[in-house]
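job 3f2a | input accepted
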Amino acid sequence: MKDFGLKKLYYSISEVSKLTDLEQYILRYWETEFEQLKPQKNRAGNRIYTNKDIKLILQIKKLLREEKYTIEGAKNILASGVKIESPALPKKVIPQNNVQPKTEKIPSIKKDLEELKIFLLDLKSQL
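job 3f2a | predicted structure (127 res):
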């Protein structure tokens, strides 16, 4: 996470919006969709996010934006407890080239196939 010189226990929605590079309305919408994302509210009724909440938001962002899961797919992955590598805060760095080495693509595809297999087996057991 970004280091502001001071570690805080709680962050406001505007701070989380800046940290995660997401609009505030998206954070509020995700609260309605993902049962795991329930930030506390202070006496004034403002949302207060913990570091755990921010990590969850980054995982959801990774699933939806980078790995292109649907909301339902992301819910299933989070509910199944599949370990997702902890994403780091986005860096404002432009890659020098968009070519990904083949060695990086293969583990990613294997991981996706394993997650798909788990999802399909779960779906089969529900039928």
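job 3f2a | The CA atoms of residues 7 and 51 lie 10 Å apart.
job 3f2a | closed
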